[in-house]
Amino acid sequence: MSAPVAPPDVDAPQGGRHLARTVAIVVGIVVVALVALLATRPSAGSPGISSSVLGKAVPAVKGTALDGTHYDVDDHLGQWTIVNFFGSWCAPCHAEQPELVKFAKEHASDGSVSMVGVMYRDKAADAESFYAKTGAKWPILNDDGTTAISFGVTGVPETYVVDPNGQVVAKFEAGLTASELDGVIRRFGGSTTTTGAGTAGTEDSSGSTP
Q1: pLDDT of residue 200
Q2: Contact 170, 161 (CB under 8 A)
Q3: CA 47 to each of CA 80, 115, 136, 160: distance values in angstroms, whole numbers, following the listed order
Q4: Which residue from 41, 76, 98, 154 lies 20 to 30 Å from 117 (Cα-Cα)?
Q5: Which contiguous run of DSSP H or E holds residue 3?
Q6: Going edge to edge, which strands form the sheet with 80-86?
């Protein structure tokens, strides 16, 4: 014979019921708030991501590149400059690198765009191998951490767009596309090549110096 099943406790204290209801309401509010936060924050790779250097003069980016040449971002005033912080150990860096290479190739005709890579917690040999495999030809700086700190970099990839006047106008995190870079240039008064993805109908007046 099976044991009897006790009926529900219809006389449960009212305080317990009120507590359970309050907890459920609080949990619901927290869930709604989290959903709203995720829906409104900038997505990875968005130039809308905030940064302490946005709208300000570009911090110093200079030194001896891995190929032995001297690099100074101030020498590239008058160009749109792309500053890319990367690590050869970083999977998202590998994912976005083809887009950077594509952007450089599409803008290689007239020299109005320059690019520079800044190593982040990486080894020179590994960084050079990474560039060789992906076809990237722009300068690589071996940062001691000073440059990353001045930009407020907390991880890679992070990419900054500097306008011809030397002002930082956009920041990308966790990946970008060539067309997004073109979009930033157009948004801030530049014009981009007609060969780039998503840039049909624009003028062919920008290039890179990889």
Answers
A1: 30
A2: yes
A3: 15, 17, 23, 9
A4: 41
A5: none
A6: 140-141, 113-119, 80-86, 158-162, 168-173
| Cβ neighbours around 20 below 10 Å, total | 11
**Taking the domain 62-187, which CATH number applies?**
3.40.30.10
Give the integer Cα–Cα distance in Å for 108 and 210. 8
Q: Do residues 184 and 47 lie in contact, with contact meaning Cβ atoms separated by under 8 Å?
A: yes
Q: What's the pLDDT tens digit per position in 32-58?
A: 333 333 233 343 344 456 678 999 999
Helices (H), the chain: 14-40, 91-106, 124-134, 146-151, 178-187
What CA–CA distances, in Å, run from 112 to 26, 89, 130, 131?
55, 31, 25, 22
User: Do residues 191 and 206 touch, judged by C-beta distance below 8 A?
Assistant: yes
Cross-strand partners of 170? 161
Low-confidence ranges of the chain (pLDDT < 50): 1-8, 10, 12, 23, 26-47, 194-210
Dist. CA 157–CA 84, nearest whole Å: 7
Residue type, 122: D
Q: Residue 30, Cβ neighbours under 10 Å: how many?
A: 10
Q: Using CA atoms, how far apart are residues 160 and 182, in angstroms rounded to an integer?
A: 13
pLDDT the model gives residue 150: 97
Residue 186 phi/psi, 5° resolution?
-65, -40
Q: Where are the domains of the chain?
A: 13-42, 62-187
Question: What's this model's pTM, rounded to 2 decimal places?
Answer: 0.69
Q: What is the helix (H) or strand (E) element at residue 152, kind and residue range?
A: none
